[in-house]
């Protein structure tokens, strides 16, 4: 499980890193094919900001 190192860095397991890398690659591929032009994309991004 990811843990804070109290110096602004985080330690991840290899599995956590792989999942984040996969999700990042997936988003990049979707954006390359226009998903960021989808009508609901802005609403989805705003929802993420509100959750954070």
Number of helical elements? 2
- Identify low-pLDDT runs: none
Helix fraction by DSSP (H/I, runs of at least 4): 55-70%
Total number of beta strands: 2
Distance between the termini: 20 Å
Mean pLDDT: 93
SS strand fraction: 5-15%
Radius of gyration (Å):
15 Å
Outline the biggest β-sheet.
2 strands, antiparallel
| Class of secondary structure makeup | mainly alpha
| Principal-axis shape | flat
Strands across the major sheet, in which order? 1-2
Order of helices and strands: EEHH
What is the topology?
Layout: E1 3-4, E2 10-11, H1 14-32, H2 41-51
Antiparallel strand pairs: 1-2
Keywords:
single chain, 52 residues, mainly alpha, two-stranded antiparallel ribbon, 2 helices, 2 strands, 58% helix, flat
How would you explain this protein's 3D organization?
A hairpin with a 5-residue loop joins strand 1 and strand 2 (10-11). The chain has a two-stranded antiparallel ribbon. It is mainly alpha-helical. It has helices at 14-32, 41-51, and strands spanning 3-4, 10-11. The model has no long low-confidence stretch (mean pLDDT 93).
What is the gist of this entry?
With 52 residues, this protein is mainly α. The protein contains 2 helices and 2 strands, in the order ββαα.
